[in-house]
Amino acid sequence: MTLETSIEYVKGIGPERAKLIKNVLGLSTVEDMLNFYPIRYLDKSKIYKISQLQEESNQEIQLKGKITQVQ
């Protein structure tokens, strides 16, 4: 693998995910990935219920819920 190798050949990425990464982040080679520094990180491993939210928190979070009615 070289710096010019397409990211679709990186283990765990593949052609479909490589296409998504290219469209969203503009990354297409291993070198692009090594030189990419995101401006923020959103931890999506923690899922909160609406009842767990705090009013004064202005933090970005991921919620899990169920829509039971739409008006």
TrEMBL record:
Pfam families given in the database record: RecG_wedge
One Gene Ontology biological process: translation
Stretches assigned to the RecG wedge domain: 7-70
Keywords, in A-Z order: Ribonucleoprotein, Ribosomal protein
One of the record's GO molecular function terms: RNA binding
Family annotation (SUPFAM superfamilies): Nucleic acid-binding proteins
Top-level division of the source organism's lineage: Bacteria
Example of a GO cellular component annotation carried by this entry: ribosome
Recorded family membership: Belongs to the universal ribosomal protein uS13 family.
Name of the protein described by the UniProt record: RecG wedge domain-containing protein
